[in-house]
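User: Predict the structure for this protein chain, please.
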Amino acid sequence: MFNISFLYEKKKGSVFNEDYFINVHIPMALKLLSNKRGFKGISVEVGLDIKEPNLASPFLASPFIAICQYYYDTIENFMNEYSYHENKISDDLVNYSDIKPIIQISQIKIIKV
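Assistant: Here is the predicted structure, written as structure tokens:
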């Protein structure tokens, strides 16, 4: 199994509309990609900054605002579907962020949920 991660790096002064991302963008992307061959799932994570008064540093900061991961049987299955819908999915970025995501493609070696 493979996952394709879209990582939105936290940058000072950047804009990221979490509500739009979770309630509009992700449902739109899922409608386009989830019923296709090889699709196994999706995860969306939102980074947290944890205040730890007992540590020397004032808090533990997440380097990413959000991470979205698509899970597919093969890279080819994802690429075939994503390339077909890429413009529609990518063009929606301006509606929720000015951060260009970092894209990481990984082969999953261990997964247990």
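The CA atoms of residues 3 and 106 lie 5 Å apart.
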